[in-house]
From TrEMBL:
Keyword Signal: yes
SUPFAM superfamilies (UniProt xref): Cupredoxins (SSF49503)
Residue spans crossing the bilayer: none
InterPro entries on file: Cupredoxin, EfeO_Cupredoxin, ET_Amicyanin
One Pfam family, short name: Cupredoxin_1
Alphabetical keyword list: Signal
Signal peptide: 1-23
The protein's name in its UniProt record: Copper binding protein, plastocyanin/azurin family
Residues annotated as domain EfeO-type cupredoxin-like: 57-119
């Protein structure tokens, strides 16, 4: 009887170890979460006196410009379609782009900072 109990305990330990290994595996569901949120929003970052990349966005998208620098910057379209005005360091500016097109933009304080926003239909 004692031997059977011992076998049972060993079996339990084996099962417990096995299930904990399974639990340690990363959940595939978790990997799909980031970036899945708001389809109608896009973020453009300003880091180290440069605009980050921004993928083409459909018309009607809300664009959020985040100034991660300490310096003040602006996000200004060459044709005047949008102009954030001064965005203080750590600040942000949000606008909605409604008209399809290709918009060259720059920082009016630091004209060497440039980029292009593509708005699709
Ligand atoms: Cu600037």
């Amino acid at each position: 009887m004692r031997r059977i109990t011992l076998l049972f305990v060993i079996l339990l330990l084996a099962v417990a170890c096995g299930s904990s290994e399974v639990a340690d595996e990363p959940s595939p569901a978790g990997a799909a979460d980031p970036g899945d949120g708001d389809q109608d929003a896009a973020t453009l970052s300003i880091v180290d006196f440069a605009f980050g990349a921004i993928d083409p966005v459909p018309a009607g998208t809300t664009v959020r410009v985040v100034n991660a620098d300490d310096a003040t910057h602006t996000w200004t379209a060459a044709d005047g379609t949008f102009d954030s005005g001064r965005i203080d360091g750590g600040g942000e500016f949000t606008t909605t782009v409604d008209t399809p097109g290709e918009y060259a933009f720059m920082c009016s304080i630091h004209p060497s900072m440039t980029g292009t926003l593509v708005v699709t239909e």
